[in-house]
Amino acid sequence: METLRREGEAKTKELEVQKKELDKLKEQHQAHAEELLRVQTRANGTETKVEALRREGEVKQVAFSASLMSSGNHGETGPFNTHTPLVFRYVATNIGNAYNPNTAPVRGVYHFEFYIYGNGHASYSAGAVLTKNGEHIFIAYEHQPSHAANAANGVTLLLEVGDVIFLRQWQNSRIYDSRNRHTTFSGHLLFLM
Amino acid sequence: METLRREGEAKTKELEVQKKELDKLKEQHQAHAEELLRVQTRANGTETKVEALRREGEVKQVAFSASLMSSGNHGETGPFNTHTPLVFRYVATNIGNAYNPNTAPVRGVYHFEFYIYGNGHASYSAGAVLTKNGEHIFIAYEHQPSHAANAANGVTLLLEVGDVIFLRQWQNSRIYDSRNRHTTFSGHLLFLM
Amino acid sequence: METLRREGEAKTKELEVQKKELDKLKEQHQAHAEELLRVQTRANGTETKVEALRREGEVKQVAFSASLMSSGNHGETGPFNTHTPLVFRYVATNIGNAYNPNTAPVRGVYHFEFYIYGNGHASYSAGAVLTKNGEHIFIAYEHQPSHAANAANGVTLLLEVGDVIFLRQWQNSRIYDSRNRHTTFSGHLLFLM
Q1: 3-class secondary structure, C95
Q2: Helix C2-59 vs helix A2-59: crossing angle, to nearest 10
Q3: Quick one: A179 exposed, middle or buried, by C-beta within 10 A (0-12, 13-18, 19+)?
Q4: Which of A43, A98, B9, C37 is 20 to 30 Å from the Cα of B183, by its Cα?
């Protein structure tokens, strides 16, 4: 009887010890649950940011390069007595569907270059203007009375989605191109904004 | 009495079983705590790297594009009998405060292009030099005795923070610009280093 | 005796309560273990993507800029009666070992510009062609009978690893360069593909 009583007391103590440990474990478990939740929230945030960076890298793949004459063709364009859009028929590179029409697919800063070639002529220069939504930006223009002239210009512009960039031949200018590809127009996205 | 003794033994066994399970759970809990810590450390590292990538993307937004004459103005610049800095007064684009003064805001590789236009003249060429901290880098130069000349050059340079890039008009050259914007200067950051 | 029996019953209940809590805790623990595994798997995925983005940033550091004459030298190159590769001896910038030979180190979209300078001559133009694996891409060409001519062109191309880009002097053209660095060739990677 005394033995049973003492054993009973021991068990009571052991039960109390275990209860305390259980309670402590439950608390720690609760703390872990909260930590896990925090880590998952952080993982969500990081994954979103990484995906945004990755997609940005893809979206930034916008570039084109074209020359005036279609393959195998050559000849003069102009002179015209008004400013006339130039259509570049040989497309060397067109990534992100940037060329034709030259509409900005995303908001960002773009770089453009254009090289205009003309046979020398007393009356006709070789010239073209880069335009943004029809507005005159920069001109490439040279006039030689004989032989062969080459003009160039380049510009970097912040474009909104849908802004249209094209080259307009300068009035009374004459532009030549051949399969050698003198007269060219290139552009690419520098960065998103 | 015998019943109580047997029940006591059963409870002792059950207590031992629970104690073992508690100990096992405590061990597993400890293992989880360590795993959680590792995951948090990794999350810290990843977040730091993602933030660095994101900031790099922002810092890389450096680009300018300018032409020589302020809006509505036109005329000759030069000739001067010494090399003279060219100031481009019409700023088409200026992102990351890259232009005026042309001081590199971050260490990196930059691309520059410049297009120089001049009316033909027997004695005066059209020419300008891109300089880095006053040092001659590349020149754009053309000389036509009549009509209209266009010269261009471009360069890619690794710049330290504070390096200064500007264009210097070539001595005894004459540069023309108008609201058509022939004479232009553009630059942008390619990548950080 | 009755006391012992009642205490025994209380312990039995307490044991059952603790067992239930232990079982619940084990279940929760198991759930945490699974959550932790998911978080670790996500951390692995994110780290791999971030490392890929970081490496992509490094790999994209490809740019060169060169001029024709080695330091201190000047003179004419050509005319030659066949197309002849131009070797640019002054290397202003060469990052990612992009120049000499001009072999694409990674698959991607590259931008190139070239500026060709020539003294005027009744019979000799100034011209050079950018070639890709020997194929004619775009030409920079100008012909002035006197004084000084400057031609330029630029192109953006998707290159495979190992594609070779070089400039070929146009036949019967004459190209001049000096320590002023008129005749230059620059290129850089825009983005990987």
Answers
A1: strand
A2: 20
A3: middle
A4: A98
| Beta-carbon contacts of residue B65 (< 8 Å; ≥ 6 apart) | A155, A156, A157, B91, B92, B93, B184, B185, B186
| Mean pLDDT value of segment C49-69 | 95
Contacts for C163 with CB less than 8 Å, ≥ 6 apart = C103, C104, C132, C133
**Chain centroid, CA A148 distance in Å:** 36
| pLDDT (tens digit per residue) in A127-185 | 999 999 999 999 999 999 999 999 999 999 999 999 999 999 999 999 999 999 999 99
Say if residues C173 and C79 touch (Cβ distance below 8 Å): yes
- The Cβ-side half-sphere exposure at B61, using a 13 Å CA radius, reads 15
- Residue C91 tokens, joined: 């290397």
> Cβ contacts (< 8 Å) between C32 and chain B: which residues?
32
Q: Rg of the Cα trace of chain B?
A: 35
DSSP line for A103-142: B-SSSEEEEEEEEEEEE--SS-BEEEEEEETTEEEEEEEE
Subunit contact A50:B54, Cβ cutoff 8 A:
no
Compute the average pLDDT of residues A19-37. Answer: 91
> What is the pTM (predicted TM-score) of this model?
0.94
Q: In chain A, which residues have their Cβ closer than 8 Å to the Cβ of C35?
A: 36, 40
CB contact under 8 A, B22 and C22: yes
Q: In the predicted model, is pLDDT for residue C14 greater than 80?
A: yes
Residue A43: helix, strand or coil by DSSP?
helix
